[in-house]
Design goal:
By secondary structure, the chain is mainly beta. 3% of the residues lie in helices and 35% in strands. The chain is built from one helix and 16 strands.
Length: 230
Amino acid sequence: MDKLSRTIPVTRPYKLPFESNKWGGASFDGVGGYINVTKNASINNLTVITIISTFKPESMGGGNLGRFSDKGQKTLFVIPLNKFQFNHIFSVTPGNWATSNNDMQIGKTQNVAVTYDNTNVNNNPIIYKDGILLVTNETSTPNLTASNDAGNDLIIGNRIAQDRAFKGIFYDYIYFAEILTQSEIQDVIYGRILPTQFDCRLWHDYRLGHARDLSGNNNHGTITGNVRFV
């Protein structure tokens, strides 16, 4: 769909957790468990992505490196001093980028979004909190060719080894095959436009009490271990 033809809904599809603490979500205990999305052509080996998730952390999670999501070659997580970090594996040297200290706030409902284009090693991801641009520092420079993630399931809230469990609540998790602008990210997180009006490949709204995909791509999540809906 051409971006110029996208329209803002007259009524918001739902209230965001920013506005109320009454919403439920998917609760992770920081010990084990995750939501597994089986590898699928619609989410495999994407060269450009936007990830958006609203969440409320209770701690930094397993190993103080709690995962938001892990697709093998593309990983979004938190690192010590409450920084967000995005990693992408390349054939020689991986690309690692981190935000500033205390950009993530324990015990507070917030949103993180990241956009990235892996077709050029000079590209850097852009990371936003609550739709506001964060300062991002490159801690490892990618080298040569972006690695293929088609053989990896998408793990939400952990990694496959189950030693990087998120602790807290996820309200939603959305995965796009395009770079959204800052204003478009703000429109999505504040409910002014539906994710499906972009090239949305996965849309989980855990406030509905399930991990079914609302994007139409059948990227449903399977609950493994200590994850429950509250």
